[in-house]
Design goal:
single chain, about 450 residues, about 40% helix, alpha/beta, 21 strands
Length: about 450
């Protein structure tokens, strides 16, 4: 019969609480004074009264230590509270506010450190002196990973009157923060004019002037099609006026995001999943601002999250809240299961944009056949991040047989990727294998081009 694993812990719970909440430590001042007693004692022995000087010095130090120990303020005289912003982007500076309150009459010298998660930038301990009352403290940090984080404790050390001993304790200071992916590209687009389509400082494909939906009447310019001239409006204004059309709105764009094993590989300090997620959210912002509906499906070996189609910028917040904390899993993804689930949930024709890895496309035997069947009811766009290591080995100089073998193998992999692209293109399915820094621009431009052709 086995015993409970919690029993050994209960035996040492008092010791753990004591070390964490009621432990008293010597300060550097006490250590230096103890070291100073060594040369003083040696000097006393040289002068002939070493024992007397030794006992006098250590007796005074012991008395000062006892007085200092007894005058250290109790924990109940201090309180701590803190504030965090509700959300922040990954890598963005996060201001943290703390308020330390001293209810006692005695001034304290303190040292404070917050209990930050491991993925946050380490803080420098905050030191200072606090009279009776309260003091506002603050510092900044950054998060390196997305997700929801709970900060529960803050640790404080404070000294007595003489400064020989210091008490350390932890204070409950519960806060939470949501770390979103880098949304600078999304905000850059939303802040730009709808006609200019600026994302991350780069001008994207201009929105086509042609379409089936009437948008507005404006003054005719020489580049306009003469067939768009509105003669009634021209007669009223006594100058040539033209009808302006735009692509049909209200279409459905479905974003599929793979979070399987291969999407956890890092490229330039970011995982493939992080890069794909940022590009997917930018595409969602563009599509929603263009008047289309956006749905989202996250999958690995099973369905993780599904957000039905919605429109408007309020729906963008729903999408971000649904995927900001998604993580890659150490399992093989199953795109066929995800496509089958999507086909059951969504019967309306849509543009399906799949963010995954080329190796998943090549290794999944059933996926090609399934895509061929679904291409009649949906328009597909498959995305993958180009492998920089594969590109580097393709262009390496063959100095020996090993380099020649690796280069030949890399070229074989590259030919397989291009062969898959050509096969899918022949079936009317567009495949993009692009570098990580070009993924967002490529996917948004491709979407706008599909809109301009009214292929959806």
């Amino acid at each position: 019969m086995t015993t409970s694993s919690t029993k050994p812990w209960r035996r040492f719970r008092y010791l753990a609480d004591f070390l964490r909440d009621r432990f008293v430590l010597p300060t550097r001042r006490l250590l230096w004074l103890m070291l100073l007693g060594v040369p003083l004692a040696m000097l006393g022995f040289v002068l002939g009264f070493g024992y007397a000087l030794f006992w006098i010095y250590n007796g005074l130090l012991l008395a000062a230590s006892a007085i200092d120990w007894l005058t250290i303020p109790k924990k109940k005289q201090l309180s701590l509270s803190g504030q965090l912003p509700a959300q922040a982007d990954i890598g963005q500076s996060i201001p943290v506010q703390l308020e330390l309150v001293n209810a006692g009459e005695q001034a304290i010298r303190y040292e404070l450190i917050d209990d930050l998660p491991y993925s946050f930038e380490e803080m420098t301990p905050i030191r200072g002196t606090l009279e009776k009352g309260w003091k506002q403290l603050g510092y900044t940090t950054r998060a390196a990973e997305r997700g929801r984080y709970e900060l529960r404790w803050a640790y404080v050390r404070w000294q007595g009157r003489i400064g020989l001993w210091q008490r350390q304790s932890r204070f409950a200071c519960e806060r939470s923060i949501r770390i979103y992916p880098d949304l600078s590209q999304v905000r850059g687009y939303l802040a730009s004019l709808q006609e200019s389509l600026i994302v991350d400082g780069t001008k994207l494909l201009r929105r086509a002037r042609t379409g089936s939906d009437f948008h507005a009447i404006r003054e005719y310019v020489p580049d306009d099609d003469p067939r768009t001239i509105n003669w009634s409006a021209s007669a009223r204004s006594r100058r040539l006026m033209a009808n302006q059309y735009r692509p049909e709105q209200g279409k459905v764009v479905t974003i599929m995001l793979d979070c399987g094993r291969l999407m956890g590989v890092e490229l330039d300090g970011k995982t493939r999943l992080d890069t794909s997620l940022e590009a997917a959210l930018t595409l969602a912002a563009v599509a929603l601002k263009q008047g289309d509906q956006v749905a989202l499906l996250v999958y690995s070996h099973e369905i993780k999250t599904y957000v039905p189609p919605g429109k408007g910028l309020a729906h963008l917040h729903t999408l971000i809240s649904a995927v900001y904390d998604v993580r890659s899993e150490f399992v093989e993804s199953d795109p066929v299961k995800a496509l089958t689930y999507l086909h059951q949930q969504q019967k309306r024709r849509s543009l399906i944009v799949l963010f995954s890895d080329m190796e998943n496309y090549l290794l999944e035997d059933q996926m090609s056949g399934y895509l061929w069947r679904l291409r009649r009811s949906h328009l597909f766009l498959l995305l993958s991040l180009a492998d920089p290591l594969l590109h580097a080995w393709n262009s390496v100089e063959t100095k020996n047989s090993r380099h020649a073998f690796v280069k030949a193998l890399a070229q074989r992999f590259q030919l397989d990727r291009k062969g898959f692209q050509q096969k899918m293109t022949g079936a009317g399915i567009q495949v993009l294998d692009v570098p990580a820094d070009q993924l967002t621009l490529q996917v948004v431009n491709t979407y706008l081009e599909i809109k301009s052709r009214e292929a959806l």
